[in-house]
Specification:
Glutathione-S-Trfase_C_sf, 59% helix, glutathione transferase, four-stranded mixed β-sheet, binds glutathione, Thioredoxin-like_sf, transferase, alpha+beta, 4 strands, Omega/Tau-like
């Protein structure tokens, strides 16, 4: 890899958003340099210049250009390094359909009806892609903030936060398409959602509940994801996240 196409990730070890990028790069087998940022006490000039609007990690630098926002970065990675695909694609099925359309044209003779039919019926996964993006967006909008409702609260507010968080998890569980969100294969929604699971242990400790009891299917999905190399090496030890959040709670006078 030349200096030019170096892949650099501005990272923070406990950030579930940065974990998404690490998983996506690992799924594609792309080597990268992770640069740890001190997001609380001193962000680097590189981070501030690369993400001047939000000033947040993750930022991916590729060809020296910054890409911000984790879901956008994961989509970028999926486009630049298409194999294995994270978003559903039907390129093989489309190639097969074109082969048989060509066969009809050559053997049966050109017939507008056939050609038109094949063109219109070419399998596309555009719908499946929208569904994957819909659920990734749901995770983005609900899961992190839902967790904050637990670890940033005490008393009644914490109880309410726990109830709302479990409801979010149950909705998500209902969207599981099979072993993974995309069906049989680990894909885009899995990449976006699984990093948040590294914070679940902390939520369980603060909230006094078990994700497994409330959402056994989701819990089994977490276990399946953790068996993947890309996930196992990108997620931190949940007890470290717990300690980190305990420190945060103390700093904010919650404990
Ligand atoms: N929507 C952003 C969220 C990124 C984010 O919240 N990053 C946090 C770390 S988990 C951060 O950099 N916080 C620093 C700050 O808020 O100043 C994404 O998906 O990339």
């Amino acid at each position: 890899m030349s200096k030019n196409d170096e892949v650099i990730l501005l990272d923070f070890w406990a950030s579930p958003f940065a974990m998404r990028v690490k998983i996506a790069l690992a799924e594609k087998g792309i080597k990268f340099e992770a640069r740890e940022e001190d997001i609380m006490a001193g962000k680097s000039e590189l981070l501030l210049n690369s993400n001047p609007l939000h000033k947040k990690v993750p930022v991916l630098l590729h060809y020296g250009k910054p890409i911000c926002e984790s879901a956008i970065i994961v989509s970028y990675i999926d486009e630049v390094w298409p194999f294995p695909a994270l978003l559903p694609t039907c390129y093989y099925a489309r190639a097969q359909a074109r082969f048989w359309a060509d066969f009809v044209d050559k053997k049966v003779g050109f017939h507008p009806y056939y050609s038109e039919t094949f063109l219109n019926l070419l399998p596309t996964c555009y719908y499946a892609r929208t569904q994957a993006r819909f659920w990734a967006d749901f995770v983005d909008k609900k899961l992190f903030d839902g967790g904050c409702g637990i670890w940033r609260n005490n008393g009644d507010a914490l109880e309410l936060g726990k109830k709302e968080f479990i409801e979010i998890l149950q909705v998500l569980e209902g969207a599981l398409g099979g072993d993974f969100f995309g069906g049989d294969n680990f894909g885009f929604v899995d990449t976006i959602a699984i990093p948040h699971a590294s914070w679940f242990y902390a939520y369980e400790q603060f909230g006094g509940f078990k994700v497994e009891d409330a959402c056994p299917k989701l819990s089994a999905w977490i276990e399946r994801c953790l068996k993947r190399d890309s996930v196992a090496k990108s997620l931190p030890d949940p007890s470290k996240v717990y300690e980190f959040l305990c420190m945060f709670r103390k700093m904010n006078g919650l404990d």
